[in-house]
Design a protein that fits this description.
This protein has eleven helices and eleven strands. The protein is an alpha/beta fold. Strands 5-4-3-6-9-11-10 form a seven-stranded mixed beta sheet, with helices on both faces. Strands 1-2 form a two-stranded antiparallel sheet. The chain has a two-stranded parallel sheet with strand order 7-8. It folds into two domains: 6-69; 88-277, 3-Layer(aba) Sandwich (Rossmann fold). The chain has helices at residues 6-19, 25-37, 41-46, 54-68, 73-77, 101-109, 127-135, 148-160, 197-203, 223-235, 251-259; strands at 79-82, 85-88, 117-121, 140-145, 165-169, 182-187, 192-193, 216-217, 236-245, 263-269, 272-277. It is elongated. This is peptide chain release factor N(5)-glutamine methyltransferase. Residues 114-194 form the Methyltransferase small domain. It catalyses: L-glutaminyl-[peptide chain release factor] + S-adenosyl-L-methionine = N(5)-methyl-L-glutaminyl-[peptide chain release factor] + S-adenosyl-L-homocysteine + H(+). Residues 8-78 form the Release factor glutamine methyltransferase N-terminal domain.
Length: 280
């Protein structure tokens, strides 16, 4: 490919990405260029005649080749927008999804007391904990994950957004350092059924690059959620909330299991489910 201007590069990069089956080809090309050039969308649009240096072209083409192989855009740029926050991401963590913002909305709509205690289980990038913290800085928020690498990224995002969050490594709620009781527990755990990886990657190849342990679980995707339910029921205060993300078709099974633990379905938005601990 021969490029004279950034407009030339954007046109040819967009064509190459579209040929690779990427629906957002033009947007992805522009975001890669913005990342390498460290310029805004407005700057690029106003300067179609700009001539990138050889080093800039080499960097853009390297990222373009990776994106053509369906490496997620967020891993190439190292950033993802979530709840109007610019979050750092890497292959160590699941990329925050827009549908997960429903978890934040449910958390903020819960009648949590001032200085209430919140635990984010399986925090990953820390997107849920950080989003809730910047919206409700009065809350005492803990975030845990079994992965030390994920916790490193979550801490970076908390620092980046001045979010006062306490972190610890934990398999679900097993770490004794976590608070004995909480007003709200939220968890975006793996919920895709283990064994469906090849089929899912056929129509969404980017999944192959994300950590499988953050995506897939046994028992039709419900193993980790089912392990969490009794732990959460013991740790919640009366009237406390448990927020979970899952596919809507999985929610009847989750609700049935939760009811045996006095956790009643109280709210739902998209893929976010709110359960509340009731008195037996």
């Amino acid at each position: 490919m021969l490029y004279k201007t950034i407009a030339d590069w954007l046109d040819q990069a967009s064509d190459a990405l579209a040929e690779a089956g990427i629906d957002s080809a033009r947007l992805d090309a522009r975001l890669l260029a913005e990342h390498v050039l460290r310029r805004s969308r407005e700057w690029l649009l106003a300067r179609p005649e700009y001539r990138p240096s050889n080093a800039q072209l080499a960097a853009m083409n390297r990222l373009l080749r990776a994106r053509i192989k369906r490496v997620p855009l967020a891993y190439l740029t190292g950033h993802k927008q979530f709840w109007n926050l610019d979050l750092t991401v890497s292959p160590r963590v699941l990329i925050p999804r827009p549908e997960s913002e429903a978890m934040v909305r449910l958390a903020l709509s819960a009648d949590l007391p001032a200085a209430g205690t919140v635990i984010d289980v399986g925090t990953g990038s820390g997107c849920l904990a950080v989003a809730v913290c910047v919206s409700r800085p009065d809350l005492r928020i803990w975030a845990c994950d079994i992965s030390p690498a994920a916790l490193k990224t979550a801490r970076q995002n908390a620092t980046k957004h001045a979010a006062d969050i306490r972190f610890c490594q934990s398999d679900l709620l097993r770490n004794a350092k976590l608070p004995d009781k909480a007003d709200l527990i939220m968890a975006n755990l793996p919920y895709l059924a283990k064994g469906t990886e090849p089929a899912r990657r056929q129509y969404q190849p980017e999944l192959a690059y994300e950590p499988a342990t953050a995506l897939y679980a046994r028992q039709n995707g419900l193993a980790d959620i089912f392990r969490l339910l009794p732990q959460a029921a013991r740790r919640l205060k009366p009237g406390g909330w448990l927020l979970l993300e899952a596919e809507p078709k999985q929610m009847p099974a989750i609700i049935k299991k939760a009811e045996s633990l006095n956790l009643r379905a109280s709210s739902q938005e998209g893929w976010a489910l709110g359960l509340r601990l009731t008195t037996p």
